[in-house]
UniProtKB/TrEMBL annotation:
Belongs to the major facilitator superfamily. TCR/Tet family. The chain crosses the membrane at residues 55-74, 86-111, 117-136, 143-161, 173-193, 205-227, 233-255, 276-295, 307-333, 340-359, 365-390, 411-433, 474-496. It comes from Microbacterium immunditiarum. NCBIfam families: efflux_EmrB. The lineage of its organism: Bacteria, Bacillati, Actinomycetota, Actinomycetes, Micrococcales. GO terms for molecular function: transmembrane transporter activity. It comes from the Bacteria. Keywords: Cell membrane, Membrane, Transmembrane, Transmembrane helix, Transport. InterPro entries: EmrB-like, MFS, MFS_dom, MFS_trans_sf, Tet-R_TetA/multi-R_MdtG-like. Residues 524-565 are annotated as: Disordered. GO terms for cellular component: plasma membrane. This is EmrB/QacA subfamily drug resistance transporter. It is a multi-pass membrane protein. It is found in: Cell membrane. Its main location: membrane.
Length: 565
C-alpha cells in the first residue's frame, strides 16, 4: 500500500471515529439532560398530578433502575458486542420518556422513570466502553475529557432548559425533548457503529448474580433514600433493609465466585489499579453529590436566590469541570502521563470542601464562586481519568465489564453520599433552628422541615436571619466532614501504578473464550494476576493502532505488548 493510500485510509478512519463520537455524545447528553431537567420541572409536575408523598420515587426509581442495569449492560456488551445493547438502551430510554410525557398520574410517571432508568443505565457506560473499543488508550484521553465536559454542560443546561420548557410550554416537554435527541443517537448507533459482534456462542446469563445484585442494590438505595427522611435510622424498616443488603451482598459474592459468566467477575479485584481507582471513585462520588445535592437549596434558603439564580451560581463549578476535564484529557493524550492528575484533583476537592466550611450568609458571591470553581477543577480532572486508568488495565474482551463496575460503585457512593449528608443536614437543621427561635416564634415559622424559599423570604427580618444562619450552620460543617474522604481517596491514588497507556487496540478475531468464563487482565503489577485465566497462545489477535491501521498480531505476542504499527 502506498503512503498516499495509507494517509487516505487513516483520514477515513478518523472521520468515522469523529462521527461515531458525535453519536456517543448525543447518547450521554440524552441521559444527562433528562435527569437534571426533570428536577426543575418537579414542583409543577407534582402540583398537576398530585401525590407529593410519591415525589421522592420520581428520582429514586430512575437511580435504582439505572444503577442495577450498569453492570448488566457492561457484561452484555462484552458477551454480544456493543451495538445491540446501545440500541436497546436508547430505545428503552425513549419509550420511558414517552410514558412519562403521557402519564395521567404519578404511578404511571414512576413506571416511565423506571423504564427510562433501565435504558439510561447503559447510555453512559456503553458510550465509555465503545470509545475504548475504537480509540487506543493513549489517544482516548481527549475523547474521555469531552465526555466529562458533556456531563458538566448537562448539569448546568438541564435545570435551565427544564425550567424554560416548563414555563413556556409544559412540564411534559422535559420528557418529550428526549425523543428527537434519542432518534439522532439511535441513527448514529445503527449506521455509524461497526464493531465485532462478540462471541458466536450463546451467552450464559448469570441470572442468580443479577437477582442478588439487584436485591442488594435495591435495599441499599432504599436505605439511602428512606433513612432519616421517611423512617428513622433505628426504625425496624431501615434495620431490616440494612440486614437484607448485607445478606444479599454476601450471597452475591458467593454466587459470582462460582458463576461461569459473573456480572462483576471477582478477577477484576485481583487488579491493583482497579481496586484503588474504584475505591477512590466511590469516595469522590460521595463528596460530589454531597455538594451538588444541597448547595442549590443552600443558596435559596441562605442567600435568597431563586431557583434560576441558584442554577446560575453553580455555573462556575460546572464550567471549571468542563475546562479541566477537556484539558486533562488532551494532556494525557499529548504526554501519556496521568497518575498525578487524579491525585491533584482529589487534593483540590479536599481544599474546596475545607473552604466551603467557611461559608456564611455574608460571604461575597465572587468568593463563593471561586470555591465552587476549585471544586469543579478537582472533579473534572478526576472523573474521566479514573475510568481511563481502569480501561487501560484490561483488554477489550472485558473492558465493558470493568468500566461498568467502576461506574456502578461510583453511583453507589453518590447515592450514599447524598442520603447521609441529607439525613445529617435535616437533623442538624431542626435542632439548630429550634434552639435559636425565640419563644412563640415557632407558630410563625411553621414546620422547620417543610420550609420553602418563598416562606423564608416572607419572614420578618429577625426570624429570616435566624433561619438563614441556621441553614448555614447546619450544612457548612458537613463539608468539613467530607474532607477526610477526599484525603483518603488522594492517598489511595498515590499507590496507583502508572502503566504506559496502550497505543494499539487489541481484539480477538474469534472471541469465543469469553463464553468459557475467561477473564483477561493486563500485567500491571496488580496482586493476583497469576490467578486469572488467560487465552491460549495459539489464538491470533487483530491489532489496531492509533492511526486506524490493522493487522493480525502474532499468536505469541503477549497481551498489551504489541508494538505500535
Amino acid at each position: 500500500m502506498t503512503a498516499r493510500a495509507i494517509r487516505k485510509q487513516s483520514h477515513a478512519s478518523r472521520r468515522g471515529i469523529f462521527l461515531l463520537f458525535f453519536g456517543l455524545i448525543l447518547a450521554m447528553l440524552l441521559a444527562g439532560l433528562s435527569q437534571t431537567a426533570l428536577s426543575a420541572a418537579m414542583p409543577t409536575m407534582v402540583g398537576e398530578l398530585g401525590g407529593v408523598d410519591q415525589m421522592l420515587w420520581v428520582m429514586t426509581a430512575y437511580i435504582l433502575a439505572s444503577t442495577i442495569m450498569m453492570p448488566i449492560y457492561g457484561k452484555m456488551s462484552d458477551l454480544i458486542g456493543r451495538k445491540v445493547p446501545l440500541i436497546a438502551a436508547i430505545v428503552l430510554f425513549m419509550v420511558g420518556s414517552v410514558i412519562g410525557a403521557l402519564a395521567p398520574d404519578m404511578g404511571i410517571l414512576i413506571v416511565g422513570r423506571v423504564v427510562q432508568g433501565i435504558g439510561g443505565g447503559g447510555l453512559i457506560i456503553l458510550s465509555q466502553t465503545i470509545i475504548a473499543a475504537v480509540v487506543p488508550a493513549r489517544e482516548r484521553g481527549k475523547y474521555m475529557g469531552i465526555m466529562g465536559a458533556v456531563f458538566a454542560v448537562s448539569s448546568v443546561a438541564g435545570p435551565l432548559l427544564g425550567g424554560w420548557l416548563t414555563e413556556q410550554f409544559d412540564w411534559r416537554w422535559a420528557f418529550w425533548m428526549n425523543v428527537p435527541l434519542g432518534l439522532l443517537a439511535l441513527a448514529a448507533a445503527i449506521w455509524l457503529l461497526h464493531l465485532p459482534k462478540g462471541s458466536n456462542s450463546k451467552p450464559k446469563i448469570d441470572v442468580l448474580g443479577v437477582m442478588t445484585m439487584a436485591g442488594a442494590t435495591t435495599s441499599l438505595i432504599l436505605v439511602a433514600s428512606w433513612g432519616g427522611n421517611d423512617y428513622a435510622w433505628n426504625s425496624p424498616v431501615i434495620l431490616c433493609l440494612i440486614a437484607t443488603t448485607v445478606i444479599l451482598a454476601a450471597l452475591f459474592v458467593f454466587v459470582e465466585r462460582r458463576a461461569a459468566e459473573p456480572i462483576i467477575p471477582p478477577g477484576l479485584f485481583h487488579d491493583r489499579n482497579f481496586n484503588l481507582t474504584t475505591a477512590a471513585a466511590l469516595l469522590v462520588g460521595v463528596t460530589m453529590f454531597g455538594v451538588n445535592g444541597y448547595l442549590p437549596t443552600y443558596l435559596q434558603m441562605t442567600l435568597g436566590a431563586d431557583a434560576t439564580m441558584a442554577g446560575i451560581l453553580m455555573v462556575p463549578m460546572m464550567g471549571a469541570m468542563l475546562v479541566s476535564s477537556v484539558g486533562s484529557g488532551w494532556l494525557v493524550s499529548a504526554y501519556g502521563r496521568y497518575k498525578w492528575m487524579p491525585i491533584a484533583g482529589t487534593a483540590l476537592i479536599a481544599g474546596a470542601l475545607a473552604l466551603l466550611r467557611t461559608l456564611t450568609p455574608e460571604t461575597p458571591l465572587w468568593l463563593f464562586c471561586s470555591y465552587l470553581g476549585t471544586m469543579g477543577i478537582g472533579l473534572g480532572v478526576n472523573m474521566q481519568i479514573l475510568v481511563l486508568v481502569v480501561q487501560n488495565s484490561f483488554t477489550d474482551r472485558v473492558v465493558g465489564t470493568a468500566t461498568a463496575a467502576n461506574n456502578f460503585f461510583r453511583q453507589i457512593g453518590a447515592s450514599l453520599g447524598s442520603a447521609v449528608i441529607g439525613s445529617l443536614f435535616a437533623v442538624r437543621l431542626v435542632a439548630i433552628i429550634g434552639e435559636r427561635l425565640p419563644a412563640g416564634a415557632s407558630a410563625r415559622v411553621g414546620d422547620i422541615s417543610s420550609l420553602t424559599p418563598h416562606s423564608v423570604l416572607s419572614l420578618p427580618n429577625r426570624l429570616h436571619s435566624i433561619v438563614a444562619h441556621g441553614y448555614n450552620d447546619a450544612l457548612a460543617p458537613l463539608f468539613l466532614g467530607m474532607v477526610p474522604l477526599a484525603v483518603i481517596a488522594m492517598l489511595l491514588l498515590c499507590f496507583v501504578k502508572e502503566v504506559p497507556l496502550k497505543t494499539t487496540i487489541e481484539r480477538d478475531i474469534l472471541p469465543d473464550a469469553i463464553s468459557e468464563g475467561q477473564l483477561i487482565i493486563e500485567h500491571n503489577g496488580g496482586a493476583g494476576d497469576a490467578d486469572v485465566p488467560r487465552p491460549p497462545a495459539r489464538r491470533s489477535r487483530r491489532v489496531t493502532d492509533s492511526r486506524g491501521s490493522r493487522r493480525a498480531a502474532p499468536s505469541g505476542c503477549p497481551t498489551g505488548s504489541t508494538p505500535v504499527i
